[in-house]
Amino acid sequence: MTTLRMYGTAPESIVDGPGLRFSVFVQGCSHRCPGCHNPDSQPAEGGYLCEVSDLVHQIHQNRLIHGVTLTGGEPFEQTEGMLELARELRAEGYNLWIYSGYLFEDLMAGHPHEKAPELLAQCDVLVDGPFIQDLNSYDLQWKGSSNQRVIDLPASLKEDQVVLWRQESLGFSAPSSW
Ligand code: SF4
């Protein structure tokens, strides 16, 4: 049984990806971006502990949710726990978005964890890169600064290069727990 160090959850989010989503905010992020939207989530020792199975149970409670967003904090600094959660949710048909301050290319190279590529393979979309205050705009969709990329993961893994996500590539199916 794997435990995650959590900052919190948003059981009905409309700002962390398309549709009504359950957002999982992990605790701990070493990027320390100036102007971070969630500075209290940065210390690695803060937050609270939660079993992956408890999170899955919480997500199952709302039958209107078909998308889950993994964010924080830095999800790839808890790759093992995130991977267990993502595998379970993907097997049930949830649409998965993940945010990271790391770049797609670095994650694919196994940084900061050798299993980062496995976690990417479980997700539909990655929003990558650090938040850069000077590049911030409220006109941007699903990201805080223009350096960040909203990446279609299945297409990028298939073509072995970054393919940007487009709204029409969204495909929902009902989770098996429905
Ligand atoms: S990567 Fe995100 S959570 Fe981490 S410091 Fe930057 S803005 Fe904050």
Walk me through the structure.
With 178 residues, the chain is α/β, with parallel strands linked by helices. It has one domain: TIM Barrel (Alpha-Beta Barrel). Helices cover 23% and strands 22% of the residues. The protein contains five helices and seven strands, in the order E-E-E-H-E-H-E-H-H-E-E-H. It has helices spanning 52-60, 79-91, 104-108, 116-122, 153-159, and strands at 3-13, 21-26, 48-51, 67-71, 95-99, 125-128, 149-152. The chain is globular. The relative contact order is 0.16. The mean pLDDT is 95. It binds iron/sulfur cluster. Iron/sulfur cluster (SF4) is lined by residues 29, 31-33, 36-38, 41-42, 72-74, 101, 130-131.
- The fraction of residues in strands falls at 15-25%
Number of domains: 1
N- and C-termini, Cα separation: 24 Å
Radius of gyration: 15 Å
The coarse silhouette is globular
Number of helices: 5
At CATH level 3, the topology is TIM Barrel
Mean pLDDT value: 95
Q: Quick one: CATH class? A: Alpha Beta
CATH superfamily: Aldolase class I
Strand order of the largest sheet: 3-1-2-4-5-6-7
Structure keywords:
178 residues, alpha/beta, seven-stranded mixed β-sheet, globular, binds iron/sulfur cluster
Outline the secondary-structure elements:
Blueprint: E1 3-13, E2 21-26, E3 48-51, H1 52-60, E4 67-71, H2 79-91, E5 95-99, H3 104-108, H4 116-122, E6 125-128, E7 149-152, H5 153-159
Parallel strand pairs: 2-4, 4-5, 5-6
Antiparallel strand pairs: 1-2, 1-3, 6-7
Helix pairs in contact: 1-2, 2-4
The protein binds iron/sulfur cluster.
